[in-house]
Amino acid sequence: MLTINRRVFLTTSVAGAIALHPLAALAQSVNVQELHGPGQLGQKVLGPEDAPVTIVEYASFTCPHCATFHNDVFGDFKAKYIDTGQVRYIFREFLRNGADVAITAIARCAPADRYFDVVDAYFSNQDQWLRSDDMRNAIFEQAKAFDFTQESFDACLSNQTLLGALDVSMQRAQSFGVTGTPTFFANGEKQVGALPMEEWDRVIGPMLAAAGQ
Questions:
Q1: Which segment of 25-29, 119-123, 165-169 scores lowest on mean pLDDT?
Q2: Mean of the pLDDT values across residues 21-47?
Q3: Judging by beta carbons within 10 Å of its beta carbon (0-12, 13-18, 19+), is residue 135 exposed, middle or buried?
Q4: How many CB atoms lie within 10 A of CB 212?
Q5: What b/e sequence results for 87-124 when a residue is b if at least 16 CB atoms lie within 10 Å of its CB, and e otherwise?
Q6: What is the mean pLDDT of the chain?
Q7: Contact assessment for residue 12 and residue 97, using Cβ atoms and an 8 Å cutoff
Q8: Are 144 and 150 in contact, with CB atoms under 8 Å apart?
Q9: Sorting pLDDT into bands at 50, 70 and 90, what band is 59?
Q10: What's the pLDDT band for 25 if we cut at 50, 70, 90?
Q11: Sign of CA dihedral 139, 142, 146, 149
Q12: 184 close to 53: Cβ distance less than 8 angstroms
């Protein structure tokens, strides 16, 4: 069972973070139907269900390369592919440490329509909370923007039903061969690392062409 305690927060650091090289890439296929299924936690999705390309991202909130992708690439990616209906994007959390568990819990406890706002806030401000001497409190300070009080914050982080579901979600990620972050699947094809836009064009272009777009 996943747990969150003060020691976990204090021992989580940038130096100790496991992150894959931002431009590393590995093509590997999985069972697409199983991969695209919602799982116990449901789906966090942007873009139309009938888009010709589905991108699944597994990301860690404490991963610097994940933050680089979301802060420097995702805006252009969303405008070019998601907002135009060409890509259905599914975001899934990959938990490497207590801070990841805490932030994922906050995102899941927040109102459903604020989920991606929470994701954006923690990636945008990663340098601040990740380097804090009191990471738990730094994460709470970010959560205040989404109307969390100390009481609701503590209740969220101790929700055993949610933590159990996150544990199951991690087992599922590992069954798809996810071992580091960020890991993407484009129509089932595995791509590892914070790919820049030109690499996404290379990956997605042939898939759109095959779909007649």
A1: 25-29
A2: 76
A3: buried
A4: 6
A5: bbbbbbbbbbbbbbbbbbbbbbbbeeeebeebbebbbe
A6: 88
A7: yes
A8: no
A9: very high
A10: very low
A11: positive
A12: no
Confidence of residue 8 (pLDDT cuts 50, 70, 90): very low
**Dihedral sign for Cα atoms in the order 95, 100, 101, 105:** negative
- What class has domain 21-205? alpha beta
Number of residues that this document lists for the chain: 213
187, two tokens: 């129509």
For 78, the token pair is: 């969303």
The helix (run of H) or strand (run of E) holding residue 106 is: helix 98-109
Q: Which two tokens stand for residue 153?
A: 């914050």
DSSP code per residue over 141-179: HHHGGGT--HHHHHHHHT-HHHHHHHHHHHHHHHHTT--
Average pLDDT over residues 162-174: 93
Among 92, 93, 91, 90, residue whose Cα is nearest residue 53: 90
